Prior knowledge:
Layout: H1 6-17, H2 22-31, H3 40-56, E1 58-61, H4 69-80, E2 96-100, E3 109-111, E4 117-119, E5 126-128, E6 134-137, H5 138-143, H6 152-162, H7 180-199, H8 214-227, H9 229-235, H10 237-247, H11 251-254
Parallel strand pairs: 1-2, 2-6
Antiparallel strand pairs: 3-4, 5-6
Bound molecules: zinc ion.
Zinc ion binds at residues 155, 159, 216, 219, 269.
Amino acid sequence: MLGLGGWWRRQILERERARVDAATWERLFARLPLLAGLSEGESRELRDLALLFLRDKTLEEARGLRLDADRRLAIALQACLPVLHLGLDWYRGWYAVIVYPEEFVPEREWVDEDGLVWVEEEAKSGEAWERGPVILSWADVEAGGVRDGYNVVVHELAHKLDMLDGAANGHPPLHAGMSDADWARVFTSAYEDMVERTDRGEETPIDPYAAESPAEFFAVMSEAFFELPHLLAAEYPEVYDQLRAFYRQDPAARLAPVVIEPAATWPSG
Ligand SMILES: [Zn+2]
């Protein structure tokens, strides 16, 4: 855990826990319906991970956004849900979360083969850079307070897990006992199905942004896994099983099912 021994972790946690009272945790958990159904032990572990996350990463305020203690904790709790049973070591090798007030246009340009300079202009709700920061739009973080399959924090942190073994490709490093071949087979076939459905204009119940690339597919399926697990288990049961083995959690067993209508538009990230 953070390269710290158990003794250190306990020392740090004793100090950090004293900074947040029970009413604050209660308020935050009530605002984040994807945290419903966690056992007492899991809730305690998630709170501890959130405190350690905020100690390990800097949350940077961009363009005049103010991040008070509640906002910082709300980001940290959602960020730590995917690694609840994996540990914060899975977020090693990067240090900053930059938070914009709203969707942002990445200030980035590149030169193509013909020497033409291109500037990226598409507004984004979030980004994850390989070995670099996670960038979030606060407006989109707030929109994650509804269980509708959209959660920018889970999405970007899923990219981070994917990038642990190199560029994001939808295939994070798996645990002992999991099969890379099974993962590739299950995800490739589900991804191809998603591409085919969106190509023919079908309104998919899961965010069609998943059809963008295998990396986006994994990130969007991770959002669905934590927010709408019953829907994911119905749409792509084998994907659900792989994610359950990877995240070592079973959200369908702890959350009540939600019925949603397909959204007209989805933010991209
Ligand atoms: Zn993405």
